[in-house]
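Design job #97: recover the sequence.
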């Protein structure tokens, strides 16, 4: 073989190796190995949301909490065992993260048609997208090919998922640590257009803060007393809590953000103008949200030969 041909062969082998240990996510990853995947996810999500509309919100939040802790690797789905401590009981998730049974149901259906092929991390990414879409939000193409973690980190979940008591600078730096900008923070926080939050997490806001509409504070106090009622729920979006729209931003402009971390996005700071623009331009918000979800979904995936395809999303194989 001529030296040049030899070089070309060597380079192709090298690039092949690089491809398969450090592969990229791709849109058509399961096109031949599991063509029914997206329909299966969509059907299960449709019946889950028919049963309880909040579940779409809960699964969207699960995906965010998965991606913020060592990447979108399905780590949040692992159960604690006698010898394994996972992320489910980290402070931001304990008695709060929900929707695991729906992911189990999707996984069972997917396994029935495509045995040991599709990762739990990819199922969660698709289910989150479908929840948004089925509640009236945008759709997007989910890049696929994630593999599942064999480990989880409760410490990382405690330290890397933002708190509802955080200020804008903390939120911005926590998002920046994941490769996301302050604008990504603002548009992804628009996920709070759906779902519910507990009294214990917004009590100080409604009793102590000044950047709040007084009628809104009074209304929330009726079901969130100064003491007790910690787990009583309130909608994150006062106007349309089960529809994915831009009303969250209208709330912020009206000083009706439920959490401190919501209202800091509109509190005479750097994000005010973007919040105002989303509050009046629904199409821009929905479009930017879809793009930011794709960005979120690309955080540090395990690909190629890293990780595994879990058989049961709750357990390492
Ligand atoms: C920016 C920082 C964020 C903070 C501090 C935050 C905090 C919270 C808190 C405290 C709750 C209520 C939990 C409970 O009461 O049990 C919540 C709910 C929720 N969060 Fe966030 N979140 C943030 C960003 C996001 C992002 C980026 C997404 C998704 C893209 C998201 C999606 C949701 C959804 C959909 C719910 C409602 C869940 C349900 O009803 O079960 N959040 N968030």
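Job complete. Output follows.
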């Amino acid at each position: 073989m001529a030296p040049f041909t030899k070089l070309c062969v060597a380079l192709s082998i090298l690039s092949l190796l690089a491809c398969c240990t450090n592969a990229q996510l791709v849109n058509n990853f399961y096109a031949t190995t599991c063509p029914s995947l997206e329909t299966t996810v969509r059907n299960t999500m449709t019946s889950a949301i028919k049963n309880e509309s909040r579940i779409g919100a809960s699964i969207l939040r699960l995906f965010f909490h998965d991606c913020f802790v060592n990447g979108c690797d399905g780590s949040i789905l692992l159960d604690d065992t006698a010898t394994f401590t996972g992320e489910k009981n980290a402070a931001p998730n304990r008695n709060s993260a929900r929707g695991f049974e729906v992911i189990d149901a999707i996984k069972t259906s997917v396994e029935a048609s495509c045995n040991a092929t599709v990762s739990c991390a990819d199922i969660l990414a698709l289910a989150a997208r479908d929840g948004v879409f089925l509640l009236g939000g945008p759709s997007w193409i989910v890049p696929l090919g994630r593999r599942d973690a064999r480990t989880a980190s409760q410490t990382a979940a405690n330290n890397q998922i933002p708190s509802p008591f955080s200020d804008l600078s903390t939120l911005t730096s926590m998002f920046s640590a994941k490769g996301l900008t302050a604008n990504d923070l603002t548009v992804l926080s628009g996920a709070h257009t759906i779902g519910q939050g507990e009294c214990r997490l917004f009590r100080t806001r409604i009793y102590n803060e000044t950047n709040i509409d007084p009628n809104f504070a009074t209304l929330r106090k009726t079901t969130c007393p100064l003491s007790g009622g910690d787990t009583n729920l309130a909608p994150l979006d006062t106007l349309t809590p089960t529809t994915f729209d831009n009303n969250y931003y209208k709330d912020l402009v009206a000083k009706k953000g439920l959490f401190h971390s919501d209202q800091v996005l509109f509190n005479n700071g750097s994000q005010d103008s973007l919040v105002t623009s989303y509050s009046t331009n629904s199409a821009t918000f929905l479009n930017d949200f879809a793009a930011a979800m794709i960005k979120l979904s690309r955080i540090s995936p395990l690909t190629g030969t890293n990780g595994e395809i879990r058989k049961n999303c709750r357990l390492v194989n």
